[in-house]
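Reopening this one. Same input as before:
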Amino acid sequence: MEKSARSTQSAQESLVKFNLDNFTKGFLLDDELMGGISLTENGEFNVYILRHATGEVLGSQTFPTASEAIRTMNQVDRPWSFEAINKCGDCGPNGGGSCQGKGCKKLQTKT
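Same output, byte for byte:
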């Protein structure tokens, strides 16, 4: 393998990507854009990319499975960093984890 091909491959491997464990816990961010995956009311997965300085949505597409949404988002070649939504981790069904239910969206009631 040539040196340039190796450096390109290692650069791609070091890019931050979504996986089945992290896509619900944060979003991807760089100097210009933000991207994420949200769950829709009908159980589908919406991939979105927006310009965070203006809030302008540059693209959005819905997929029937998380795997398809993750695969599509991971094809966007940007120098992403992962930004966690909160520092609690997985709150679990009873608000466990490090947040002890204080910041867990699962425990908050809709008003």
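So the earlier flakiness isn't reproducible anymore. For the record, Residues 3-107 form one domain.
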